[in-house]
Amino acid sequence: MMASPIEQLAKNFSLSSFKRAKDLKKRIWFTLFILIIYRLGTYIPLPSINPAVVSEFTRSHAGGLFGILDMFSGGAIGRMTVFSLNIMPYISASIIVQLLTAMSPQLTALKKEGEAGRRKINQYTRYGTVALAMMQGYGIAVGLERMMGHSGSAVLDPGMLFRFTTMTSLTGGTLFIMWLGEQISSRGIGNGSSIIIYSGIVANLPAALFNTFAMGKQGALSITALIGLLVMVIAVIAFIVFMEKANRKIPIQYPKRMTMVGMPAQQQGSHLPLKLNSAGVIPPIFASSVLLLPMTIAGFMTVDPNSILGHISRIFAHGQPIYIISFCAAIIFFAYFYTAIMFAPEETADNLKKSGSYIPGIRPGAATADYIDNMLTKLTAIGSLYLCAICVLPEVLLSQVSLPFYFGGTSLLIVVNVSIDTVSQFQSHLIATQYEGLFRRGRTKGLI
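The structure corresponding to this sequence follows.
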């Protein structure tokens, strides 16, 4: 059985093929350049901030919600820089706009208008990003004014001017990060938003590894625990790769193809692949964004431990049963919600019917749409439970030994998933380069 052209091209990947891929190299260098700009921005501090008090607060809250936010922002919020909000307001705005799109007939019709409608929806998302960033920026400014340490207040010159400058600085930083992400998506390689979050996590991995081994050297962490951590990380990475590559292949029969005179017609067959986890890393990121938004604002406020708000803050603290249940429920909800938005069974069934294709044993039209929808529901159920297990179980175990969140399930899921997607795009660009080379050689031979 002969291999397909794509399989033949994949086997011919070499260093020489990469050297010929000039566009791919430009995209890689452009992505690295954008990431360098982003990392530089995570070190530009907000005005009128006392870094000693902020550093003291960061160390004392490293094991809670503040530590998770600091992980997603690449350490920016721990240094209280202009990029402290990172891209989370944009993600939150995307959630709100997608929810409204699913509920509003006007936005649904706008989505079906193609490129023009997509640009309009993206514009609404940007407006929502500005509003959320301003709200969160003002809340952080108020929280910073109330933050006290051994060396005094975290704000050197509190007042309305400080609140205004902090709000505008954080909002401007978020919008700039959003623009950087869009540039990566259009002119670089990979999904811009995911790459930025990925770079923030990876940037702090060396420090996290150093601190972990330092804990082992000082006796705070036993050799058994270190080996167990290494085994757990390898096992989780292998499990994530296996589950992300898993898919259900639905057989598809195409119309019979005409052959030479006197030869019987041949019927072609293919398959429709449905991924086990169609939503990727979006559900954990969305769930974290939704849960961390109110808790972050409450974390910057001075709350009486004996008050109702103090009691609620304790039961919703990271690692508590209520937080874990809420996190898992949010992951399951966003897994189904995002899959329903990204994959339309009715549209797929209609396209199959128009092309004369069908699923063996299933009638075309509504029956095919119901079959695909039922299959997606079952796959998403398994995929959402897999996401819950990956995001919750390792972090519960790590919280018992006070290790950094960089070794938790959510961070590993983001790193592995974004790496897989980026490598897939890398290979797609190489395949395109190989095809262009074949076409050029074919045209040259034709001229000769």
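DSSP finds 19 helices and four strands in the chain.
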